[in-house]
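User: Can you model how zinc ion sits in this protein?
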Amino acid sequence: MSESPTDRSPSCSEALEQLHAVLDGELPSEEARRIIDHLEACPPCELEGDSFRRIKEAVAASGNALDPASLARVRELTDRLCREGVPPTA
Ligand SMILES: [Zn+2]
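Assistant: Here's the modeled complex, given as structure tokens:
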């Protein structure tokens, strides 16, 4: 299986890695689109996308810098969800 970085869907870890750059508007729109496509197709990553957005909004509202420890915790949680699957929703 040959892998071209511009021509395939990102893996979960890649999507999560790029997520903050997407939210910060740091990625070219084509790249961002690939990440967002993955998020929309992958519930654990979508969950992380939502959490990330909420954290960033809260941080923006408070005017404080983003706490790296908070980001690490969100990422850890989603890594686990990606590996173990999303818990069934009631
Ligand atoms: Zn994923």
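A couple of observations from the model: The first helix runs from residue 12 to 23. Residues 12-83 form one domain.
User: Helpful, thanks.
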